Amino acid sequence: MxxxxxxIIVGNLGADPETRYLPSGDxxxxxxxxxxxxxxxxxxxEMKEATEWHSISFxxxxxxxxxxxxxxxxxxxxxxxxxxxxxxxxNGVEKYATDIRADxxxxxxxxxxxxxxxxxxxxxxxxxxxxxxxxxAAAPAQRPAAAPAPRPAxxxxxxxxxxxxx
Length: 166
Fold this sequence. Notes:
- By secondary structure, this protein is mainly beta.
- 6% of the residues lie in helices and 42% in strands.
- It has one helix spanning 60-69, and strands at residues 7-13, 18-21, 27-40, 47-59, 75-88, 94-108, 126-127.
- It has a five-stranded mixed barrel with strand order 1-3-4-6-5.
- A hairpin with a 6-residue loop joins strand 3 and strand 4 (47-59).
- The longest helix is centred in the middle third of the chain and has 10 residues, at 60-69.
- It is globular and about 55 Å long.
């Protein structure tokens, strides 16, 4: 039987991204994203919130883009997989941490605030390595009402600002 390790997160960054570089020169960017569930308490009838924090890591070109464009408060859509790592804390105790290794990312919200909705309701740009452009459409509710004519797929993401529909 096949297995699936897939995570989809839509939430807001709790702090600016942290980018560092491996000895190979590849970038690694880490972010913490908050997701909040709202529910009605059955006993009291009042609305309650439960917030979860998720550690997400981006690698290579996706790490550079995340580090450059994301900021504290930015709303982001991330697809990836769970990775559990083992480490030893400063007291010598072995511990485990489960993080998300991002495969693709979609920036949501306005370009200026990067966290709130824009005036036209449009979404931000996205980047998904080695995937068809249709995979970039992450949140249909964030798209403008009148969709522009389709553009040919960009072969070079270095000039990303020209391909982002803001």
